[in-house]
Design brief:
252 residues, mainly beta, 16 strands, signal, 35% strand, five-stranded antiparallel β-sheet
Length: 252
């Protein structure tokens, strides 16, 4: 009887061996035995399976078993979609550029002779006065900054063009300086703006020596217009006149 029960238990165990599998077959069927037909017995039905196993050993009835399945399921839960995010990083250094010619001499603007009333046939109130305006126009095709920035204009002397060795003169009748204005124009945007660039300008008038303008990243040509208006209220002392203007592009 012990042998019979052992065989029955072995057969019945086929039902549960493949339990871990995601998909499996575990079938136990009896026919023609003590309990017939008997399909996949559980609970008290296992006693019938044991009786059928004993009958099979005695040559009565038959048994059918089928077992299929994997010994292990997925190692991790399966998913129908995987999103993998990659972060690409890099850095662009702040930079400002201004093409100002290939040599320093290109940045020395000679206005030539600044004409004054030199004839003796003019009224004394007009003698030695400036007879016409002067000026300079500077253009570069390459200027700009790749970040928020400041454009600055600075004169070295608020008086404008200055004669530093005028000798002596009547200050009621003569002056040793010639005021001038500076206007820079380019195409850019307002500070922190993300929009289409438009014409921007910055001016330092004859009575000022500096100005600045904050703006967003820009690149374009830049024009610098220097205007030396006619001085008419006083005569100009003879000598050399000089003034320096600095254009600064500064990243912020």
């Amino acid at each position: 009887m012990k042998t019979i029960l052992s065989g029955a238990v072995a057969a019945i165990a086929l039902v549960g061996i493949a339990a871990p599998a995601a998909a499996q077959t575990a079938e136990l069927h009896y026919a023609g035995g003590i309990v017939s037909p008997l399909t996949n017995p559980t609970g008290l039905g296992l006693l019938g399976a044991a009786a059928n196993e004993g009958a099979i050993l005695a040559g009565i009835g038959t048994r059918y078993t089928a077992l299929g399945g994997s010994l292990s399921g997925d190692t991790t839960p399966a998913t129908t979609r995987v999103d993998v995010e990659f972060t690409l990083k890099g850095k662009v250094n702040k930079d400002c550029s201004f093409y100002a010619g290939n040599t320093a001499s290109a940045r020395t603007i000679d206005l030539g002779v600044i004409g004054v009333q030199t004839g003796n046939n003019v009224n004394v109130q007009s003698a030695f006065e400036m007879v016409a305006p002067a000026g300079a126009l500077i253009d570069t095709l390459t200027a700009g900054c790749n970040t928020n920035n400041v454009v600055e204009i600075n004169k070295n002397d608020i008086r404008g063009l200055v004669n530093n060795n005028p000798g002596g003169y009547d200050t009621n009748q003569f002056q040793a300086n010639i005021p001038y204005s500076v206007e820079a124009s380019w195409n850019g945007v307002a500070l922190n703006a993300q929009t289409t660039g438009t014409t921007q300008s910055l001016t330092v008038d004859t009575a000022s020596n500096a100005a600045q303008k904050q703006q967003g990243a820009w690149r374009s040509a830049m024009s610098i217009d220097i205007v030396v208006p006619t001085v008419t209220n006083k005569g100009l002392v003879a000598g050399n006149y000089e003034g320096k203007t600095t254009i600064t592009l500064r990243a912020i």
